[in-house]
Amino acid sequence: MAPPPTTKIIFLTLLLQLCTTTISTTVAANTTNATTGTGGKIPAIFIFGDSLLDTGTNTFLPTGVRADHAPYGENFPRRVPTGRFSNGRLMSDMLASHLGIKYTVPSFLELGLSNEDIVTGVCFASAGSGYDDTTNAAAGIIPVLRQVDYLRMYITRLRSFVGAVQANRNLNDALVVVSSGSNDVTVSFYDSPNRPGLFIGAYHDFLLSRLQTFVQELYGQGLRNMIIFGLPPIGCFPGEISAKFRIDRSCVENENSDSESENQKLVARLAQLQPSLPGTKLVYGDIYTPLYDMVKNPLNYGFEVVDRGCCATGFVETGPFCSISTPVCPNPDKFVFFDAAHPTEATYRHVAQSLQKQALPQFL
């Protein structure tokens, strides 16, 4: 049976990636000096998950879930819309920079990746994805569990020029960053008519079982050091506030409580899982606390607007509905959110600083 069109397109993209000599925008951005924080102890970084971490993967996929157009990227180096769902860099870029690895993390599907880009790590995250197959029904995205398939392709290329021994060492010492689950909870539970008899706690357990399978597969490929992000305060995201018709634009606190509940379960699951994976360090990354504090105490961080995004009305627009034809605020640094579902670079900077204090030291 012939492969589906999506598979053919991705295969051609990877073939071009191996052959082209084009200098990519992300590679150009990586010529900027990274802020060295650890003296190079961690040699590479690998990114998995959804749009909170997608540095441009969906740009190379046949999907409408993309951000490779203005005003996205308006504060990125050279004002390039790389596919990041924000006005600038993401948490993953900032963590890589702090570790002295590189200024930005390119997508594995990006054309023109140099051997240096490959050695120091890439992004496999795909916007719109999740652990639940129902979430992944959106055409053209790469489900989280399928992102491991692209990791295998990456390893093949890495071994082709550094050898198996060095490749294995690089994988063992690298840092893995994972963020997923928000799309599952919003798209496949809160906003889905297909789960009327399922309690949120049971759904959390299902997602955690899928996460466990994912972590085990990463371990099987040689990855050992992993930060697993919990859920953000989903009820404070502008799009979710609008979906629940909050006239006063206040957070949907019962959904925030659900996020906290799943995060507590995640901490317990990681502690339970780690002993079964010798040599592995599984660390919970708390993004809920700093994000929630920014929404509740915005002036402490220099923010002025917390209940809508910077793009268009800020109430519902994201992806193709946040475009060059829609208005955008004059100063995104005053907004917690850039669109209805994604934070600004300024917000990500504060979250990254929190992770640098509470998660990264456990690997150094």
UniProtKB/TrEMBL annotation:
GO terms for biological process: lipid metabolic process. InterPro entries: GDSL (IPR001087), GDSL_lipolytic_enzyme (IPR050592), Lipase_GDSL_AS (IPR008265), SGNH_hydro_sf (IPR036514), SGNH_plant_lipase-like (IPR035669). The keyword Aminoacyl-tRNA synthetase does not apply. Belongs to the 'GDSL' lipolytic enzyme family. Keywords: Signal. GO terms for molecular function: lipase activity. The keyword Acyltransferase does not apply. This is GDSL esterase/lipase. The lineage of its organism: Eukaryota, Viridiplantae, Streptophyta, Embryophyta, Tracheophyta. Residues 1-24 form the signal peptide. It comes from the Eukaryota.
